[in-house]
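RECORD CONTENTS
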Amino acid sequence: MKYLVQVCLSFGLGLVLLTIGTPRATQAQDMPACMDTDDASRGNPTATAAWWGRRNAEEKKYISELPCEERFIPMICIYLFEPDLRGCVNERVAEFRGDRACAAKGYEILSEKRATCTEEFKKSFAPPFTS
């Protein structure tokens, strides 16, 4: 009985040392640089790396290939469990870019001109993810 307990404790200790010894950088090696904030009071690099590790290849692609200021868009679609992730991302990127373009033209927020401008932008918009 004494040997069984020692074997179990040794096995458990080995597992703990194995998980502690795994470098965190390997878990987040392909995580985009602008995914987490450097502000220690807001950012949690360990949680971000764990979240990134749970993403599938399609989700990682959509997040990684967008510019930093647009990377929140696929994250929202993931959070909402959208069945058509590509369609959700393309639609919201079009809205985001259209809103930015129309704001740069000087249209007031919530104005009819800005809404018309955004709709016109979306008609000529080429989605970033086609296949």
